Structure formats: C-alpha cells, structure tokens
Amino acid sequence: MRSKILFLIVTAFVVFTACDSKRVYDTYQSMPNAWHKDSVVQFNFAAPDSINKYNLFVNLRNNNDYPFNNLYLIVEMDFPNGKVFKDTLQYKMAKPDGELLGTGFSDVKESKLWYKEGVIFNEIGEYNIKIQQAMRENGKVNGVVNLEGITDVGFRIENADISKE
C-alpha cells in the first residue's frame, strides 16, 4: 500500500512538471512580511534566442491578508545595450465581494499576470526585470509603505509559439 501511494505521488509530480513545456524561465522571490514601497524585486536572465517570440508574465502569490481588489506595479525591463522600458500596470486581484482571484486551494492564491506578449529578444546578453509595488489608498497621495499579503513575486517567460507545446 505504501509503495502504491509513493508511486502515485511520483507519477503526479512527473505529469504536472511535464505539462509545462512552454516554460523558458520561471522563478520567484519571497517577500519577508510585507512588500515595502522602496523594495524592488529583480530578475536577471540571458536572452533565450533572438528569433522566437515569447510571452512574459509577472507571477504573484498572495494570501487573505491582501487588503485590495487591485494591484498597481511598476515593471522595468533593462536591455543589454542600456535601453529601458518602464510600465505602470494594473491588475484585478479580487472579485467585488473580496474573494481572491488566482489559483490555489488554500488561502494562498497564485496569479499569472500578463506583462508583454510576443517579445523577441533581439539583443544578445543579460536582461534585467525590476518589479515594484505602486499601491496607494483611495484619496491619499502617499503610497502604501508596507503592502501586506503578497508572499512571493515571480517572473516567467514562455514560448509564444503554440506549436512548441
């Protein structure tokens, strides 16, 4: 009986990891207690190639301590030649009744948020992604100093070509 359970666990692990054939780069950084407004999460990666198209995502894990229905992020992409693209992005994080969006069975939800679609890394070298929270409460000028409820911030690159599945 014990060996059957172990076999099922190993089989499930293989099946779930093998189904992610689009993944090129996928990593997370944990947030200690809260995401400070001056804390910039950075991801460095080498250009996968200079021909194929890729979709880029910001991945987040958040729990029930997250107090907002939306999320504002400042995401910067630094290219190897020094060019910089900076975007302010908004994402919906909860339904109107406060129920968190995302996937997961516990109070921790994982959200895969679109950043850029069909990107071609036409510069060979090291790219840098910087992600910073830009939340503020309604009617207030200053931003939220410590954003509660975000447990992990990640960055993901996927093959955009469907035939590579």
From TrEMBL:
Domain of life: Bacteria
Keyword Ribonucleoprotein carried by entry: no
InterPro entries with a match to the protein in the record: Motility-assoc_lipoprot_GldH (IPR020018)
Keyword Translocase recorded: no
Keywords, in A-Z order: Lipoprotein, Signal
Pfam families tied to this protein: GldH_lipo
Secretion signal, residue range per the UniProt entry: 1-17
Name of the protein described by the UniProt record: Gliding motility lipoprotein GldH
Species annotation: Bizionia myxarmorum
